[in-house]
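To close the section, here is one more complete example, presented without commentary so you can practise reading it yourself. The ligand is protoporphyrin IX containing FE.
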Amino acid sequence: MTTTTPEAVGTADAPFFPAPRSCPFSAPPRHTEFREAGGLHQVTIWDGSRHWLATRHADIRAVLAHPALSADVRNPDFPLVHSNQPEHEGGLFLRLDDPEHARLRQMLTKEFSVKRTRAMREKLLEITDELIDGMLAKGGPVDFIQDFALPLPSRAICLILGVPYEDHDLFQRHANAGTDLDVGHEERARLQHEAFAYYSALVERKRREPADDMISRLLADHTGPDGFALEMLPVLVGILVGAGHETTANMLGLGTVALLLNPDQRDRLRERPELAPSAAEEMLRYWSIVSTDPRRVALEDVEIGGHLIRKGEGVIVSLIAGNRDPRVFGAGEGECPADTLDIGRNARNHVAFGFGSHQCLGQNLARVEMQVAWPRLFERIPDLRLAVAEVQLDFKKNSIVYGLTSLPVTW
Ligand code: HEM
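Output:
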């Protein structure tokens, strides 16, 4: 079974979700329409069920901060994004509600703290240089996704967790299948089992031979009755590996395209590398790569933006619509419009990492990776350019995380 196509189940009053970005650089047009009309709107998902969609920045924050809007995928009314999600994620901290979610999450936060991730900066710079050396040695054109955007975050998350990077073909395939909505039910289940077997063997190896890495620390300090169930550890590690590289890899590819297509912004960053932190925030806002999350289900009647969500109804948020909300971005005097890329903008209050208690655990790591990568890339390869015409760029059409399937570049 594959995911149902938009034409099959969407209706005029409740269009299919997720909606395509008809222009690769814009929010889905219906989400923009909904945002400008105000309020919450109905959308239809793959199984034909209808849920509410929040599109305004203020409504999105209100949804994600509301304690009666639950993240628990085991709730039968939860808006699932594909048929076999609960098998995979049910019971994991990220799909639980507080206080259980908070109790488990705090066992992981130290590993991804600002301090810990900043301490990785030198190592990330070293990896960045190695990858640039590799591209230069190969000679253009190269596929930037395979040669840079994927290996940088993959190697970083492998170092943190203690996953052997040599196995990247395997875990990148698992992660990619986890986000590609065109992968069918059986194939997804097969890959989930394959991934579970791989991470189970790895966890068992760490149990026998602990090392200075996150999996070993989790085994030593955070498993058992008060921590993570031992049998959930392989699932947790798989999710961290997937979330840790798939998202940032897409951001690195898309952000590089944005800089190549906006040479004024690229030159600004090259001349003022201290803009790297605001450039990273602006890229996160501008691209808003997470297309199908966050999703919640109402545990009681809740009012958001003057709209009543009844107990048992699902709510989805459109991060890109919220991050392009002209009420919040581009509203200041002299500020660029919300749909325009401006790496000097103060975009810190974007919702690309979500909001509230489930806000992205790996955000500090993702930030440092982007802050290190772009200035170094354009410093070392100043004449980096697309090796294909802009219209030939291959943007993902039906994925949980937006990105490029390949990015041919040369210099
Ligand atoms: C640019 C990169 C990234 C983006 C845009 C992103 C986006 C998001 C978003 C929107 C959420 C909220 C989901 C919700 O509320 O339901 C989230 C949660 C999460 N992210 Fe990320 N993420 C990124 C990188 C990472 C990295 C590098 C990791 C590495 C560990 C990671 C791990 C997680 C985890 C574990 C959660 C669940 C947190 C919780 O439920 O408490 N993410 N991310």
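Once you have examined the tokens, check your reading against these statements. The two ends are 43 Å apart (CA to CA). The first helix runs from residue 6 to 9.
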